[in-house]
Specification:
It comes from Apodemus speciosus. InterPro entries: Asn_synth_AEB, Asn_synthase, Asn_Synthetase, AsnB_N, GATase_2_dom, Ntn_hydrolases_N, Rossmann-like_a/b/a_fold. Strand 2 and strand 3 form a beta hairpin. The protein is globular, with a radius of gyration of 23 Å. The chain is of the alpha+beta class. Helix 8 packs across helix 9 and helix 8 packs across helix 19. Helices cover 36% and strands 19% of the residues.
Length: 534
């Protein structure tokens, strides 16, 4: 990841305002740059770089000789940049994947550009010739983007909200900061005084629609009466392609491995493809957990089976609690299940950075939303309702799972969740059968003890830190998204300390549907309990 930041029409001294960009310095440890926009003394870009491709010419904002009026700051990866370059015979000046955005924009404008991109991205594109600013974000919001805009046309944009909160502006004592919506782009007019005016906000892609770049995929189209084997074959092709296209890096690749279905399939397929590409280093896999963690045992079994260089990280209850302040500050949310799951991911990311040279880290995020993998889907009243819920979860990925993955580093009525995905790889020999058919386990529960789940662990440890009197006034102190538990109250306290008055960044808590759940953990569900006994 990298960190992007930009201001347009600032009333304050830019040298002072630029200090807020250092709040996201952790996103780009390799280099940083601030650059003023020619002819606009109150506009500038900031960039923190993690060098993944083209270490020589990869600094931003990207500017090329052919388009001296275009300025681009982006975070992410454009997987089909080489294919597009070859198709349109663009002459590149760098080896940076994001350069394709400049060429596509010059050729066909912003809408055709963003619809052709296969990747995860957030960008700020400035066209000084036509006096336009464009903001864009990928369909699922895998790469984060926040904005703040005042009525008089001051615009601030950043990869994380914490890079905007300290900013000052003459017209308001409290700058409203909000996430830029996934699957959208915005067009803004750039005025002579450096300020902007929004022209339109466009939803360019919905998660249920086939993206424009998919016309180049090699999967078979499905028609009424299709065979299930066709679906399985398509799944295998798309899964393999999803791994392959993410190998575009000059840095070492690693993989998070919980021993669950998703991360295990990713790790096994990734190792296979790295061998085929004759990569000269072993794949490093990483697992984390407390003693007696079921994830550690399962991940060890997978690592031994596939032959990865496996790393295990042990942490205790005190380390988990001590990490909460840093985790919530990094996440910029107080959602209970997100915070729980992020502790382990935060600690293992810290281990990877300090003890290894792996920089590009694969994981299994997003599969549960797409394949209806959460255990509560067993309670779906109909396949149609399950599909609606899956679509809702995909739309909200940016608020929960991919937010967690970014900041700290994704089957109705079949008896076991993600049945089709498991069956697709039944004969592949990628994984041991007991891993391929291992039931769903929440990450926060899987890394803790079998006897003391993550949900019970955090509730027990935090209940003694919040008393009944504090809970009795929770609705007065936190009228929006009032915490219902002492654990939730504790997280909210930390969040408000770092981001006072910003509770609306989280629109609602993540909770299972179709049941009267009081806790987001799967271990509290009847289906999980009966499956565990079996």
């Amino acid at each position: 990841m990298c960190g992007i930041w930009a201001l347009f029409g600032s009333d304050d001294c830019l040298s002072v305002q630029c200090l807020s960009a250092m709040k996201i310095a952790h996103r780009g440890p390799d280099a940083f740059r601030f650059e003023n926009v020619n002819g606009y003394t109150n506009c500038c870009f900031g960039f923190h770089r993690l060098a993944v491709v083209d270490p020589l010419f990869g600094m931003q904002p990207i500017r090329v000789r052919k388009y001296p009026y275009l300025w681009l700051c982006y975070n992410g990866e454009i997987y089909n940049h080489k294919a597009l370059q070859q198709r349109f015979e663009f002459e590149y000046q760098t080896n940076v994947d994001g350069e394709i955005i400049l060429h596509l924009y010059d050729k066909g404008g912003i809408e055709k550009t963003i619809c052709m991109l296969d990747g995860v991205f957030a960008f700020i594109l400035l066209d000084t010739a036509n006096k336009k600013v464009f903001l864009g974000r990928d369909t699922y919001g895998v790469r984060p983007l926040f904005k703040a805009m005042t009525e008089d046309g001051f615009l601030a944009v950043c990869s994380e909200a914490k890079g905007l909160v300290p900013l000052k502006h003459s017209t308001t004592p409290f700058l409203k900061v909000e996430p830029f919506l996934p699957g959208h782009y915005e067009v803004l007019d750039l005025k002579p005084n450096g300020k902007v005016a929004s022209v339109e906000m466009v939803k360019y892609h919905h998660c249920t629609d086939e993206p424009l770049h998919a016309i180049y995929d090699s999967v078979e189209k499905l028609f009424p009466g299709f065979e299930i084997e066709t679906v399985k074959n398509n799944l295998r092709i798309l899964f393999d392609n999803a791994i392959k296209k993410r190998l575009m890096t000059d840095r070492r690749i690693g993989c998070l491995l919980s021993g669950g279905l998703d991360s295990s399939l990713v790790a096994a397929s990734l190792l296979k493809q790295l061998k085929e590409a004759q990569v000269q280093y072993p794949l490093q896999t990483f697992a984390i957990g407390m003693e007696d963690s079921p994830d550690l045992l399962a991940a060890r079994k997978v690592a031994n089976y596939i032959g990865s260089e496996h790393h295990e990280v042990l942490f205790n209850s005190e380390e988990g609690i001590q990490a909460l302040d840093e985790v919530i500050f990094s996440l910029e949310t107080y959602d209970i299940t997100t915070v729980r799951a992020s502790v382990g991911m935060y600690l293992i990311s810290k281990y990877i950075r300090k003890n290894t040279d792996s920089v590009v880290i694969f994981s299994g995020e997003g599969s549960d939303e797409l394949t209806q993998g959460y255990i509560y889907f067993h309670k779906a009243p109909s396949p149609e309702k399950a599909e609606e819920e899956s679509e809702r979860l995909l739309k909200e990925l940016y608020l929960f799972d991919v937010l967690r993955a970014d900041r700290t580093t994704a089957a109705h009525g079949n008896g076991i969740e993600k049945h089709l995905l498991r069956e697709t790889f039944e004969d592949s020999n990628l994984l041991p059968k007991e891993i391929l058919w291992r039931p769903k386990e929440a990450f926060s529960d899987g890394i803790t003890s079998v006897k003391n789940s993550g949900s019970r662990f955090y509730r027990t440890m935090l209940n003694i830190r919040v008393d009944d009197e504090m809970m009795s006034t929770a609705s007065q102190k936190f009228p929006f998204n009032t915490p219902k538990t002492k654990e939730g109250y504790y997280y909210r306290q930390i969040f408000e300390r770092h981001y006072p008055g910003r509770a609306d960044w989280l629109t609602h808590y993540w909770m299972p549907k179709w049941i009267n759940a009081t806790d987001p953990s799967a271990r509290t569900l009847t289906h999980y309990k009966s499956a565990a006994k079996a």
